[in-house]
């Protein structure tokens, strides 16, 4: 059975161009870049090249890039660095719709004695900026606001937010894991102090990420060890994956124009056709202010998990906006923060496309999904037939 993969906010296919560039560094040039001998030592030039490529992609200087193992590590490193560099400040701010890499870290820090402000969003998933600005205080150590939401694709006005935060002299971090590669992200234009990215969301492998650290930002390493990454992140470098991430950054930059518009047209077709043919379905999030590849659609009176399982029978891979916790299906914290009613939040599905999706695949989903929803509703005691 052919797989129709529309779950690219979860992870992406490694681009063939990326894999090709990585392969020699597993079997032929497998040295350690810290070695004195040239078999290993010469690899430091390859790391330098990859760092430069990623820096160009983000509008950064090469020395402002720290390679990490994933987006989660980048997020944890950034927040830990900010609070440990400002030990007298005990207040930290984030939004109510962050990925668990930030949300759960903030909840953990609240148990360690930090006062945490979670900024709310409105029904369309847009951030309450007034609430954010009124929350700032002289005790605030760091503000972390994601660039784009992984579930709804809603984009936050980071450029505007960062201007206000920096005027107050407060450290600002953004989790740009879902934004990079989908919309322009340029740290030359947007004055963030720190920014997290993850390789596997942009067609590089899993297990590689990066933290952008603006020159002059106070920093303490999260992983303390060797001298790698100029002493900012210990651990022998993941050479092949770093090379892959550099190449993925180049490809993503190339794809930002025409290709991302093609993806947006496919996403719009999928969304419009589903809304047209399935009654009681609606989009979650601000449709004018979204990533071009993402749509979160709620189908009232059906369970998201049931939809996923039935789509799976047809080879269609997507995600639901609910998670199974201790046997009960809990709608996601993102949809709850937006006030999406339970009847709709339970039946929400996220479709996230990539440059590898085709129109035939979208047509296939448009054909298969409406009968699935109709069938599930026939079985639902809540559906008014
Ligand atoms: N931040 C956001 C917004 C994400 O969507 C994800 C992954 O889904 C992460 C962070 C974590 O990235 P990683 O899987 O590389 O740790």
Description:
The protein is of the alpha/beta class and 385 residues long. Helices cover 41% and strands 16% of the residues. It is built from 15 helices and 15 strands. The protein has helices at residues 16-22, 24-27, 38-41, 43-58, 71-85, 100-111, 129-135, 158-167, 228-231, 239-255, 258-277, 304-313, 333-337, 342-345, 359-379; strands at 4-5, 65-68, 91-95, 115-119, 140-144, 171-175, 194-198, 209-213, 281-284, 294-299, 316-317, 319-320, 322-325, 328-331, 348-352. The longest helix is centred in the last third of the chain and has 21 residues, at 359-379. It starts with a strand and ends in a 6-residue tail after the last helix. The structure holds pyridoxal-5'-phosphate. Residues 70-72, 75, 99, 101, 146, 150, 175, 177-178, 198, 200, 209 line the site of pyridoxal-5'-phosphate. Pyridoxal-5'-phosphate (PLP) binds at residues 70-72, 75, 99, 101, 146, 150, 175, 177-178, 198, 200, 209.
What is the CATH superfamily classification of the largest domain?
Answer: Type I PLP-dependent aspartate aminotransferase-like (Major domain)
Number of strands: 15
Strand order of the largest sheet: 2-8-7-6-5-3-4
What CATH architecture of the largest domain would you give?
Answer: 3-Layer(aba) Sandwich
Rg over CA atoms, rounded to whole Å, is 22 Å
Largest sheet: 7 strands, mixed
What is the overall silhouette?
A: globular
CATH topology heading of the largest domain: Aspartate Aminotransferase, domain 2
Oligomer: single chain
CATH C-level class of the largest domain is: Alpha Beta
The level of helicity is: 40-55%
Mean pLDDT: 96
- The total tally of domains equals 2
Strand content: 15-25%
Unreliable stretches covering 5 or more consecutive residues = none
The SSE string, one letter per element, is: EHHHHEHEHEHEHEEEHHHEEHEEEEHHEH
Tell me which ligands are bound: pyridoxal-5'-phosphate
State the separation between the terminal residues, measured CA to CA: 33 Å
């Amino acid at each position: 059975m052919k797989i129709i993969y529309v779950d690219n906010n979860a992870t992406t296919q490694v681009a063939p161009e990326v894999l090709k560039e990585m392969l020699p560094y597993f079997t032929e040039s497998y040295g350690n870049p810290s070695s004195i001998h040239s078999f290993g030592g010469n690899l430091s030039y390859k790391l330098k090249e990859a760092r430069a490529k990623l820096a160009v992609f983000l509008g950064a200087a090469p020395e402002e890039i720290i390679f990490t193992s994933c987006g989660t590590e980048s997020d944890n490193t950034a927040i830990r660095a900010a609070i440990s560099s400002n030990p007298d400040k005990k207040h930290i701010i984030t939004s109510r719709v962050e990925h668990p890499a930030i949300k759960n870290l903030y909840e953990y820090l609240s148990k360690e004695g930090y006062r945490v402000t979670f900024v709310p969003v409105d029904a369309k998933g847009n951030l309450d900026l007034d609430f954010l600005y009124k929350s700032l205080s002289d005790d605030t150590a760091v503000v972390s606001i994601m660039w784009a939401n992984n579930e709804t694709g809603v984009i936050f006005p980071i450029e505007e937010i960062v201007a206000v935060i920096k005027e107050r002299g407060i450290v600002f971090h953004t989790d740009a894991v879902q934004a990079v590669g989908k919309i322009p992200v340029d740290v030359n234009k947007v004055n963030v102090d720190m920014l997290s990215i993850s390789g596997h969301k942009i067609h590089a492998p899993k297990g590689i990420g990066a933290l952008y650290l603006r020159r002059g930002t106070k920093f303490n390493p999260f992983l303390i060890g060797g001298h790698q990454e100029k002493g900012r992140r210990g651990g022998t470098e993941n050479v092949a994956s770093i090379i892959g991430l550099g190449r993925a950054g180049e490809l993503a930059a190339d794809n930002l124009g025409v290709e991302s518009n093609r993806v947006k047209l496919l996403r719009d077709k999928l969304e419009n056709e589903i809304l047209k043919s399935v009654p009681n379905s609606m989009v979650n999030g601000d449709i004018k202010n979204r990533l071009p590849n993402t749509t979160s659609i709620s189908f009232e009176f059906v369970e998201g998990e049931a939809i996923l399982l039935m789509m799976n029978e047809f080879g269609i891979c997507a995600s639901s906006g609910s998670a199974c916790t201790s046997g009960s299906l809990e709608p996601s914290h993102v949809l709850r923060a937006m006030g999406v009613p339970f009847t709709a939040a339970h039946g929400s599905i996220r479709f996230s496309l990539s440059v590898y999706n085709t129109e035939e695949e979208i047509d296939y989903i448009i054909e298969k999904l409406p009968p699935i929803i109709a069938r599930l509703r026939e079985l639902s005691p809540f559906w008014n037939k």
